[in-house]
Amino acid sequence: MDPQATIDDLPSFLAGWAGRPTLMKTPHRHDDIEVNLVAEGGPMLYLIGGSLVEVARGSIVVFWAAIPHQLIANRAERVHWLHLPFDRFLSWGLPEPLVTHLLSGVPAISPPSRADATDQAKFTQWAADLATGQAEPRRIAMLEIEARIRRLTMSTFGEPVRPDTGDDPALRQVVSMVRHIATHFREPITIMEIAAAANVHPTYAMTQFRKVVRTTIGDYLKLHRLAEARRLLATTDLPVSRVAAASGFGSLSRFYRAFTDACGTPPARFRRERRE
Predict the structure, then answer these.
(1) Could you tell me which residue, 108 or 124, shows the higher pLDDT?
(2) For residue 166, what pLDDT band results from cuts at 50, 70 and 90?
(3) What is the dihedral sign for C-alpha 235, 238, 239, 240?
(4) What is the number of other CB atoms lying within 10 angstroms of the CB of residue 28?
């Protein structure tokens, strides 16, 4: 199964599978909590929000997939994926600092030194249980997944280790730009300001950004704003007009249009469906 071919911009769902990762042509998002385990081979290199994140063999990474993310380099041969519905994840009542960090775009990642020898077998069993469609195996799997994430976050929490970008100036410049976007997307920032964060000319910035991320700076900025809008709609009672403003949208009409086009439902309905 090729996850990139099947999950782009889909509603939240519960599933698990394993396979060899393929590079993502563009950043994407979906309304799930995503859990990855690198089982065989070398590391994966993700661009998640404003972070460049390396996931080595034996490591588990947990992140909110509504944050724009993109696999930009890969040496892993086999990876296990879990997608957990956002509302189910919130219902677990995990520590507030962890939830806040995940929903702000900071992944939780375990180092290889804390690898659990039973993880591969567990992920395989969870995927099989979730695929049965039967209530009791799925319930058992969810209880075990919750316990594994709780254990993971007892010792792994906060800013992920950012790998060295080496001698690739384009990658260094783009990482500077995405970090600036992740920090300032709530503000009315311009391409000129984003380019200045990488000390490059705006025209050059747009070219390099598209070369590495394979989308425009404007579209990437909009993905961040939409992720923040989802978070606020799902976790607060702010009026929709304030959600729009707090997410960085310049007008309510622009917010409604962008949100409905991206999510397939208006903001108010999105909020109701997450709370039913």
Answers:
(1) 124
(2) low
(3) negative
(4) 19
Tell how far CA 23 is from the center of its chain: 15
DSSP E strands, 110-174: none
Q: Which pTM was predicted?
A: 0.75
Q: What is the pLDDT of residues 73-116, one digit of tens each?
A: 999 999 999 999 888 888 888 887 778 778 877 888 888 888 88
Over range 117-130, report the average pLDDT: 96
Angle at 28 between CA 201 and CA 71, to 5 degrees: 80
Question: For the packed helices 267-275 and 252-263, what is the interaxial angle rounded to 10 degrees?
Answer: 50
Rounded to 5, what percent of the chain is helix, strand, coil?
50, 20, 30
Give CA–CA dist 149/177, Å, rounded: 31
Cα separation, 168 vs 156, whole angstroms: 29
Cα–Cα dist 50/241, whole Å: 26
Please tell me the distance from the alpha carbon of residue 258 to that of residue 225, in angstroms, as a whole number: 10
Interacting residues of 73 by C-beta distance below 8 A, sequence separation 6+: 23, 44, 45
The C-alpha torsion from 24 through 250 and 233 to 217, rounded to 10°, is: 10
Residue-range domains of the chain with CATH: 3-155 (2.60.120.280), 169-275 (1.10.10.60)
User: Residue 172's Cα: distance from chain center in Å?
Assistant: 20
